C-alpha cells in the first residue's frame, strides 16, 4: 500500500506554454496597437464544458481550452473549455459580456466531483487600425 501511494504521488508531468518570462534588467520596447472590437449582437454564442474528477487525482473532460485567466468558483480549465466551445468555428475572436451558469455536484462522499459550466455572450472580432 505504501509503495502504491508513493507511486501515485510521485508521478506527474506538466507543460507550460506562453506566460510572462521574468528577466531582470530587461527593457521591452513594445508599441501599442490601435484597434476596435466589432460586436455582433445578431447571434448569442453558447458553449458548455463538463469536468469530472475522481479521487481528486483523475480528471476527465474537454482537453481543448481557451488560453486566458478567469476568477470565480469554477475551475479555470472548465471555464476556458466552455469559452473555447462557444467561440469555436464562429469566426469571432472574443466573447463580450459573458454570463456563466455553474453547476457542481459531489458524490460518494466527495470522491467524485462533477462540474458543468455553460457560458453565453455576444461574439466580437478585433479589427486592428493604423
Can you put this structure into words, describing what you see?
- With 130 residues, the chain is α+β, with helices and mostly antiparallel strands.
- It has one domain.
- Helix content is 16%, strand content 44%.
- It is built from 2 helices and 4 strands; from the N terminus they run H-E-E-H-E-E.
- It has a 4-stranded antiparallel sheet with strand order 2-1-4-3.
- The radius of gyration is 19 Å and the shape is flat.
- The N and C termini lie far apart (65 Å).
- Residues 10-18 have low confidence and may be disordered.
List keywords for this structure.
4-stranded antiparallel sheet; alpha+beta; 2 helices; 130 residues
Could you write a compact summary of the structure shown?
The protein is α+β, with helices and mostly antiparallel strands. It contains 2 helices and 4 strands.
Q: Which range does the strand content fall in?
A: 35-45%
Q: Count the beta strands.
A: 4
Shape: flat
- Average predicted confidence as pLDDT: 79
Distance between the termini: 65 Å
Are there runs of 5+ residues with pLDDT below 50, and where? 10-18
Indicate the multimeric state.
single chain
Write the layout of secondary structure elements.
Elements: H1 2-10, E1 34-54, E2 58-61, H2 76-87, E3 94-107, E4 112-129
Antiparallel strand pairs: 1-2, 1-4, 3-4
Amino acid at each position: 500500500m505504501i509503495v502504491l501511494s508513493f507511486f501515485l504521488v510521485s508521478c506527474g508531468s506538466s507543460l507550460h506554454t506562453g506566460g510572462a518570462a521574468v528577466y531582470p534588467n530587461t527593457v521591452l520596447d513594445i508599441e501599442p496597437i490601435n484597434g476596435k472590437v466589432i460586436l455582433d449582437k445578431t447571434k448569442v454564442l453558447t458553449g458548455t464544458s463538463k469536468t469530472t474528477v475522481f479521487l481528486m487525482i483523475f480528471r476527465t473532460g474537454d482537453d481543448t481550452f481557451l488560453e486566458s485567466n478567469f476568477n470565480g468558483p469554477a475551475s479555470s480549465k472548465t471555464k476556458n473549455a466552455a469559452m473555447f466551445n462557444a467561440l469555436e468555428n464562429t469566426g469571432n475572436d472574443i466573447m463580450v459580456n459573458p454570463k456563466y451558469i455553474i453547476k457542481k455536484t459531489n458524490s460518494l462522499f466527495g470522491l467524485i466531483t462533477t462540474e458543468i459550466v455553460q457560458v453565453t455572450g455576444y461574439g466580437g472580432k478585433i479589427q486592428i487600425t493604423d
